């Protein structure tokens, strides 16, 4: 038995005239949709951020700056991303935007939810109001100046965001970014506020233990007196064990 496969045109010709009209309209609609998708792909070639995915569902009961009101028309906003290639260039553009007294808002290209979250974090460092508009793959953030914008910029947080973006890589997920963002930066030097430094002896500047100390009294009851060695045969140590601060990643005993 031979099975013949009908072509699309033969299938159309087998339909009644009224259904052929509907067939042609459907094919034209699909062709328009295909051209629109091709145009969107070309537009996204200039987008430095990861393209958004379609939302499969939204959680209720949580407020998020990303879920702001989208009742206004989005057609009036034209993304200004010709000079933005990554979070570092975005940070530079924000500083230029703050110095530009003639502009009150800056529109960014469409991007996915995680990229918008990073933009919101960066905007908060500069005291900028950030919100997202649009829906689906066309959702994009807008940064707006406030009376506090540019005052007391949180430079430490800016550095952490940029470092985390670089370490986690472009298009990374929230977990990768958070792991790099919350990682403590170890410089091997002193902590802020006068903490311990590399090689410092713990308790070196502590006051001498008084004879009223419980441990001191226990040693005296066992026959020990100040200046004696410890141990049954009096052959133990005189000075207490010392602990040194180690903040670098060198192995124990290594010098370089």
What distinguishing features does this structure have?
256 residues, mainly alpha, Ribosomal Protein S8, Chain: A, domain 1, 3-stranded antiparallel β-sheet, Splicing_assoc_domain, Protein SQS1, nucleic acid binding
Structure, described:
The chain has 256 residues and is mainly alpha-helical. It has a domain at 65-181: Ribosomal Protein S8, Chain: A, domain 1 (2-Layer Sandwich), CATH 3.30.1370.50. 35% of the residues lie in helices and 5% in strands. It has helices at residues 8-13, 17-44, 87-99, 113-125, 155-168, 174-181, 214-221; strands at residues 105-107, 129-133, 140-144. A three-stranded antiparallel β-sheet has the order 1-3-2, with helices on one face. Strand 2 and strand 3 (140-144) form a beta hairpin. Helix 4 packs antiparallel against helix 5 and helix 5 crosses helix 6. The protein is elongated, with a radius of gyration of 33 Å. Residues 67-82 have low confidence and may be disordered.
């Amino acid at each position: 038995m031979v099975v013949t496969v009908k072509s699309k045109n033969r299938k159309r010709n087998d339909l009644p005239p009224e259904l052929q009209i509907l067939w042609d309209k459907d094919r034209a609609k699909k062709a328009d949709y295909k051209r629109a998708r091709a145009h969107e792909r070309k537009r996204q070639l200039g987008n430095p951020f990861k393209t958004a995915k379609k939302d499969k569902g939204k959680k209720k009961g949580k407020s998020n700056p990303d879920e702001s009101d989208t009742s206004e028309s989005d057609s009036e906003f034209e993304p200004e991303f010709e000079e933005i290639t990554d979070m570092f260039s975005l940070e530079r553009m924000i500083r230029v935007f703050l110095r530009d007294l003639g502009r009150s808002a800056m529109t960014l290209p469409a991007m996915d939810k995680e990229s918008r979250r990073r933009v919101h974090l960066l905007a908060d460092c500069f005291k900028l109001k950030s919100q997202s508009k649009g829906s689906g793959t066309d959702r994009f953030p807008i940064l707006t100046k406030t009376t506090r914008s540019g005052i007391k910029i949180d430079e430490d947080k800016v550095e952490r965001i940029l470092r985390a973006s670089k370490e986690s890589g472009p298009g990374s997920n929230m977990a990768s970014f958070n792991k790099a963002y919350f990682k403590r930066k170890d410089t091997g030097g002193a902590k802020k506020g006068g903490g311990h430094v590399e090689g410092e002896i713990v308790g070196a500047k502590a006051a001498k233990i008084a004879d009223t100390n419980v441990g001191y009294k226990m040693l005296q009851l066992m026959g020990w007196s100040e200046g004696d060695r410890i141990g049954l045969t009096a052959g133990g140590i005189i000075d207490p064990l010392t602990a040194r601060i180690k903040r670098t990643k060198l192995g124990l005993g290594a010098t370089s």
